[in-house]
Amino acid sequence: MSELAIEFCGEWFRPSADDGDVFEIGRDGDLSIEDNPYLHRRFLRVSFESGIWWLANVGSLISATVCDAGGGVQSWLSPGNRLPIVFPTTSIVFTAGPTTYEILAQLHGAPYQEIRSEDADSGATTIGMITFTTSQKQLIVSLAEPMLRRDGTGLSEIPSSAAAAARLGWATTRFNRKLDNVCDKLDRIGVKGLRGGPGALATNRRARLVEYAVASRLVTSADLPLLDATDDG
Q1: What is the DSSP secondary structure assignment for residue 145, as one 8-state letter?
Q2: What is the pTM of this model?
Q3: What is the three-class DSSP state of 164?
Q4: 130 pLDDT band (50/70/90 cuts)?
Q5: What whole-number distance in Å separates Cα of residue 104 and Cα of residue 15?
Q6: In this structure, what DSSP letter does residue 10 have?
């Protein structure tokens, strides 16, 4: 039987595989995140059924981004839905209020393996059929910087557009224009939550962008030097 271990802030949990047992994540869960009033008392639920580990969203407002460790498979787990945990390492990222959290699930005896590809190119980053320029990548890193610099905390305060623009030495208007472009690109390949409706960008798009970028490994701590690099104009 496969064994599941869950890590958050350096602490490990091992959910029970007994029938009827559940492991809950939230303000009042088995994995308790007590200091955030924006987080549901019970948000995510892990259970073992018919030989498969399941991750269910039992909240009512917040969604989670779920990816394999290599970033090759990404799902958006909305309230009322569940998905199987099948990879050796699964990243679960979600935002409650201004704070972003990352939880890792490690599955021993996983039925699937991540497939990683190495792409040696001119420096642009490609995901799916989309290429990101240096300045677009800088924008993503500037928003994800607190998350990427975390030191065992698993938490981050997402900067405002003005603060992220100042970090890069850009005008806020330029930052917002490039943010529009990045969100449009990801929206076209099916990344959910970056638009509030037809023609209207979601107010929480920065949080959603950070969730996706961190969970899918679109940006990592290795990209932090981009913040001090000369962009492509």
Answers
A1: H
A2: 0.82
A3: helix
A4: confident
A5: 13
A6: T
